[in-house]
Sequence to fold (264 residues):
Amino acid sequence: MNYKIDNVSLREFGVYPTNASGEKIALSGLFDLPKRKGTTEYDWGTSIEPFVDASDIELDGRSLTLNVAIKGSSLADLHTKLAAFKGACIACKKLWTEVGEFDVIQKDEIAVTEYPFNCVAVIKAPFWEYSYVPASITIPASGNGEYMLDSYNLAKDFGLHITSFRNVNSTPKRVEGNTTLLYKETSHRSYYDFSQQCNMVGNDIYDLYNKMHQLNSLLITPGLHTLTLPGNTARSVYFKDGTTVTYLSSRVLRFDLKCRVING
Fold:
């Protein structure tokens, strides 16, 4: 994967991409969906009202962290290259990759680990994509299957496979009544969250990016969603926490898909 900072290749700075921790890619956050901003629901005392109209859904930005290494011919050369690269990061407005270009600012610490006897520095340069742009959903819905989100077969349409569930059959806590007396009502129940650890399988990094970007868009479409799991009844859910995705290989992504259950 090649990268550019304001249309200047990393090679021009004498910089080389290195894998992010636990991943096989230099740019962590590339596949992530940012969380929703603002209030996402209201507790009426007897029920929870989710805010899922189009006007309610506003996304935060997301962090894209570039992991690189620099080697100098001498310590002075290393420091010259390092200063030039950090300066370019601080001034950066456009971060380019082979799968897309992103509007960013550099606002957090640029972390440098230096190995002076080898004239090498390892850098983590975080960028903030302040306006995440969802993809248009062009993948056609299959319309049937055991593992469904709305009319999409998640395995067939997105290459998504569940490895584990958390809290899938939990019963939420009761909604507490606003009274000074002993409150004995137990039938009014709140929401609960559950998550699925998923692997997404694709043909290559481009196919994975396309599938994940469109899945992220599906998660934030307005309205409640119907999620059907193998061996379980359908649940009404919505997604508010985003996704944090690990790039395991050129054909596999891993992430937790967390949702808030309104009933079921």
